[in-house]
Write a structure and sequence with these properties.
Length: about 625
């Protein structure tokens, strides 16, 4: 059994009980302890800044040329908080229940309640940092709604909320760097985790400008490296985003959980051609005022403005009247794919649906819509050459967020002592589906309010542990392993580029482990991935040397993706139910809705790496619900 370390007491008192009994490190001893934080997005920057301010010595790593270029900048629509400013019935418990239900009852009660509980103080914290949240005429902070809820709890800064929150965390990080408490290592990528006596004690990082492998020791290691949605190649993530840090940790003994729970965002720009390397996210906040529809007639080629109301199918409003266009992301994405596959898709590749603002503009006026979404409309026009104030947007589902990640306990520490995972790098808060605007929330809460209590609780027991340095044999062994992989890539004289293999993985997963899955397709995918891995090892061609070489960087990431993709398929194959974003075609109602199996699958699937060519081992963490009743998830 794996221990989630959930504190005693009622749901409302668990976090307070933890904080009241957590072990502390006195200020003089904090200066003796070193912490590595990999990743400088919201989770990484906030964690590094908070711990540095306490007095710990921090080494911060990111592969970008600046810590402010972390992918948190891409989050657009907002951040949730149960402040009930609209007096519309919101509360901590309501937010907790919405998140549990949104994740289809596949997340821990204690973690989710803590997320909701800490949400209110985050907004005050961000305002104090200068984050320019939208305000009403009287000066009060404004709210809007996101999918899966019936209240307004999403705080936003137009369509740039992630960027503005990251600037706040970035400033806090730089303040500590200037004070000498944070050492920033930009253009460095973690390539190996170093374990000593079973504990995380450092990393091997590759300097991406020189190619040199560097050894870095620490008393604890934090991975805040984001999700692995780029495994699908075409996704909303930047090209550099990857899952290598958590995968390398997995191969050293950290379990991976909920690996196949992948969210497809329903509000993205559709693929326009085969040469694309990514897809563009359009904020879910647009669904507050935009109405989603397709023509009633399959293959309708008319301009959308010439199609009358009675010949339009507002399918979300039809199928889910209680939530309509604000149905959760997994449900909205599957509904869009169903209409597209049935021949009702629109656009040049017939792979999109319409997002229409004409009614909202008529009712609210164009200036009001511009004040809320102006930058998103401008971005859409720059990309597509279409004025969305005059003509509906084209949108389509795209791979976006990974609910799965490293298994962590309540602290959130992985199965490797001293190795913590924050934000999207862990699995803990979202279950089988994430509600919109909870991503920024989890990243900030993990970094600002949870890790500053839980990491010192662990470090208090490390004060008497003998100090290690990078001369330890474990560092030499890890460095040797990393160098051997680099040499293998450079010595491989095949004929295909890294992108060739990455596209193969993405297409295979999208077709067989994407918005829907089946036993037959998943087994086919596993067989194909095993063949693809052999081809990758023999047919890869890397040009250049081991110094400044982006192809070499990508090769390591794609090698990890092939193995990760296979584990995703094993996870999806083992879970014989439909829940959240995991939709098994064999388990659905006659109306095409998910059929969950609480009797046999009410647990977190945590997978252990058993070695090259070996099947992964499944460990089950039972999910116990004391405060909510397991119910059929309905938004009708």
């Amino acid at each position: 059994m794996i221990d989630s370390k959930i504190p005693e007491g009622s749901l409302e008192t668990k976090w307070d009980n933890y904080k009241a009994t957590a072990k502390l490190v006195n200020p003089a001893n904090r200066t003796k302890l070193n912490i590595i934080v990999v990743g400088t997005g919201l989770a990484g920057s906030s964690c590094a800044a908070s711990l540095a301010e306490q007095g710990y010595n921090i080494k911060s790593f990111c592969f970008q040329d600046s810590s402010r270029r972390a992918h948190s900048v891409a989050a657009q629509g907002g951040v949730n908080a149960a402040k009930n400013y609209k007096n519309d019935g919101d509360s901590v418990f309501r937010m907790f229940y919405d998140t549990i239900k949104g994740g289809d009852f596949r997340s821990r009660e204690a973690n989710v309640y803590r997320l909701a509980e800490c949400s209110a103080k985050l907004i005050d914290h961000a305002v104090a940092q200068g984050v320019p949240f939208a305000r009403e005429y009287g000066g009060y902070l404004n709210n809007r709604s996101f999918g899966g809820v019936q209240v307004s709890r999403t705080f936003y800064a137009r369509g740039q909320t992630g960027q503005q929150l990251l600037l706040g965390a970035y400033q806090a990080l730089l303040r500590q760097a200037t004070a000498g408490k944070v050492a920033l290592h930009t253009r460095h990528e973690m390539v190996e985790l170093v374990l000593i006596d079973g504990k995380a004690k450092g990393i091997i990082a590759r300097n991406l400008e020189t190619g040199a492998l560097e050894r870095h020791e620490a008393d604890a290691v934090v991975l805040a490296t984001g999700g692995y949605g780029k495994v699908y190649y075409l996704s909303t993530l930047a090209m550099g985003c990857n899952g290598s840090a958590i995968w390398r940790a997995h191969k050293k003994g950290a379990y991976m959980a909920g690996v196949s729970w992948i969210q497809f965002h329903p509000t993205c720009l559709p693929q326009r051609g085969e040469s694309q390397s990514k897809l563009t996210l359009m904020s879910e906040s647009l669904r507050n005022d935009g109405r989603i529809w397709v023509p009633l007639k399959a293959g309708d080629q008319r301009n959308p403005n010439s199609i009358p109301e009675e010949e339009r199918d507002y399918y979300l409003e039809r199928r889910y009247p209680a939530f309509g266009n604000l149905a959760p992301r997994d449900i909205s994405s599957r509904a869009a794919k169903e209409r597209i596959d049935a021949g009702f898709g629109v656009g040049s590749m017939k792979n999109a649906v319409y997002l229409d603002f004409s009614k909202a503009i008529d009712f609210q006026g164009i200036e009001k819509i511009k004040s809320k979404y102006g930058n998103l409309f401008s971005m859409y026009e720059k990309i597509n050459g279409i004025d969305a104030y005059k003509e509906p947007m084209l949108i389509s589902p795209a791979a976006h967020f990974t609910m799965g990640g490293l298994w962590v306990d309540y602290e959130p520490m992985t199965t490797i002592p001293g190795l913590f995972a924050l934000g999207e790098a862990n699995f803990s808060d979202h279950g089988a589906n994430r509600l919109g605007a909870n991503s920024l929330l989890q990243a900030c809460v993990d970094g600002y309010f949870i890790a500053p209590y839980t990491i010192p609780n662990y470090l208090s027991g490390e004060l008497k542990t003998p100090k290690i340095n990078t001369d330890h044999p474990a560092f030499a062994e890890a460095e040797k392993s990393a160098q051997e992989q680099i040499n293998m890539f450079l010595n491989c004289k095949g004929k295909y580029s890294v992108d060739y293999f990455h596209k193969k993985i993405g297409k295979l997963l999208y077709e067989k482990c994407g918005l829907s899955r089946s036993k037959e397709k998943l087994q086919e995918a596993i067989d194909s991935l095993q063949l693809l891995k052999k081809s990758f090892e023999n047919d890869l061609l890397i040009t250049g040397d081991e110094k400044l070489n982006s192809e070499l960087e990508k090769a390591g990431r794609v090698a990890d993706y092939i193995e990760l993709a296979e584990l995703m398929c094993h996870d999806a194959l083992q879970r014989e139910e439909s829940c959240g974003a995991h939709f098994r075609e064999e388990f659905q109602t006659t109306e095409g809705e998910a059929v969950r199996n609480d009797t046999d699958f009410c647990y977190v699937s945590a997978w252990e790496w058993k070695g090259e060519g070996q099947l992964p081992e499944l460990h089950k963490e039972p999910l116990v619900f004391d405060s909510v009743e397991l119910a059929v998830r309905s938004y009708k």
